[in-house]
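>> Question from a student workshop board

For tomorrow's exercise we were told to take the sequence and the ligand below, predict the bound structure, and bring the output to class. My setup keeps failing. Could a helper post the expected result so I can at least see what it should look like? The ligand is heme C.
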Amino acid sequence: MQFNKQFMSVLLGAALTLPNLAQAAAAVDTERLINADQEPGNWLAHGRDYTEQRFSPLKQINKQTVADLGLSWSYGFDSTRGLEATPLVIDGTMYVTGSWNVVYAFDAVTGELKWRFDPKIDRGAVGPKLCCDAVNRGVAAWQGKLYTGTLDGRLIALDAETGQPLWSTQTTDNDQYYSITGAPRIVKGKVMIGNGGAEFGVRGYFSAYDADSGKMLWRFYTVPDDPAKETNPVLIEASKTWAGEWWKLGGGGTAWDSMAYDPELDLLYVGIGNGSPWNREIRSNGEGDNLFLSSIVAVRPDTGEYVWHYQTTPGEEWDYTATQHMILADLEVDGNPRKVLMQAPKNGFFYVLDRVTGEFISGENYVAVNWADGIDPTTGRPNIKPEAHYSSAGKPFLAQPSPFGGHNWQPMSFNPNTGLVYFPTREMAFPYIADEQYQVKSMTVNLGVSLLGASLPEDPAVRKAVKAATKGRLVAWDPVAQKEAWGVDMPVPWNGGTLSTAGGLVFQGNGQGRLVAYDAASGEPLWSYHGQTGMVAPPISYSVNGEQYIAIMAGWGGAVPLVVGPLVSEALTTNTNRLLVFKLGGKATLPELKVTAKALNPPSATATAETVAEGKAVYHIYCSSCHGDSAVSGGVLPDLRYASQHSFDYWEDIVVNGLKKGNGMAAFGSVLSVEQADAIKAYVIKRANDELAAQKAKQ
Ligand code: HEC
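>> Workshop helper replied:
Here is what the output should look like for this input. Compare the format with yours to find the bug.
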């Protein structure tokens, strides 16, 4: 603290006065953000500082002392949806976002709630616009304000002291299926924010807003408009990589998560998402690279002016987003110091790029990859196998990685002392089957890929085999050698982001409900804590009054548990959402975990096979993305097989009329007839009775 204040005063040439804490929080300005790394006690920005290394210089908690780490305080949230946020800690106050965009401020030492802000999302209306849970990844801070992007596309500025909203700007067209889940970044008084929705037929962009007024300053579209209308020379050039009438389908390319900034080069890097629809035959006549899908784009933060791009997956049609976390570091490559940008996008390759020019330096696969034979070192292009292009090849392709990615949004961390990057990976395959009956639908994803076709076969033996081939792993990657230094297998394929510390530790929460500290050099687990719920968010570290803390948003959620329940049965899905904060000698405890086995008590299955088949088909269009493939939930939303008699009785009211819309279960009456809703019910009842029979057979 003392050091920082002096340091800042010198830096700003200001008189050395020690402001009180409130004023200090107010003083997060450009200089402080640029030098965020030199405030060991604070976590001022999403990735800790602009490099997004997520490396804490604190070392009170280290290999020797970590055994004494214990819970200091916790806070229980009133939601059971996903938690993915990185907390910020500014001079003793912690700011986090929970599910449905509720923002909280805590005293970082005592855990006392200072304020809570609920932007009151219309959950029934917004629910179906979310591909991957009602999550948010965090706030940004600047000059006494906090900034948060909401699931309904608002960018809101809050008074950091009181939580009162100061301004709110709608950044998206609410008639379309846009949503914001990412954390804003602040560069020189501008709030940078993108959005998601590329599963639903939108056109991607990211924008800068004036941090004081909320006025939009510039916008960068990632997909060209109709060439008859497009005026931006960069996008006119990009349109040469597209074919057909992509603009009518949106095109995708949403910037829904990662950004990094290099103040010296004055470049803002933004990770760009997948195509919409996924299927390139439908999207672009099966042709072209489709810029800037699956690319990293570097722009000038003052103007949004394009500087360079690197496309990780040209012509992408596998949901291989390049929105995954980016880390900036200075590495020695072949004896030369290089300013690099590192990313492990969904497509399975770990990239090291020159962040000055965008030039490809190296890339190797960090999980099994079968859609491409490596990357051509001279062009930096992947050698894509023709058969991987399922939409034009005319037959399904069983691809590795899956659309959930070899690595997803879960942040990586970089430890400059070990030179390693730590991130959670996933071995998983997915059958891409072109949807021959494609037509744009509302209230559901529009992929051009058949989710019914991709749904797991009902044969238990096949399911067992698929599950055995699906694994999670914590990987320590050497970016210079481009190979794994060590790795730890995990039974659950969906685990948390990482934190690295100068204490020689890597912290990660996992799908089995444990927060674990590993030796950063060897991967040896040194400490763990049972957090009573699967964890996916990244931990952080901070200090106040000379004491170091580790904090994590503990809660189960996100894409994998929503969509592929059958593959996460080893996960701890009780979903007791909490903020957990640890320190050496911490003695706080959690109330005992009570898990009550749910009763499987379905009505008897009386419907015809034809009705069940129809129900199955409609279920995998409108329901599986939340309630899980083949009606098996991954523990975030209700497993419909276990629905109460009451829910079966009121099925039409719930499904067609929106009886539960206040909790995010929309009314599907605009797209489903009562007969279709009943057919889905028949399918769910059939699945429930199958499960009942299987359970009885085991007894
Ligand atoms: C966007 C996500 C989403 C989609 C898509 C979705 N649901 Fe839901 N559903 C929910 C949520 C959230 C709840 C929990 C509501 C609550 O807690 O009151 C729920 C609850 C339910 C319930 C009550 C379950 C119980 O245990 O009481 C039923 C029945 C249901 N959904 C059926 C369906 C059907 C049928 C479909 C497809 C037509 C569907 N849902 C699609 C989010 C979704």
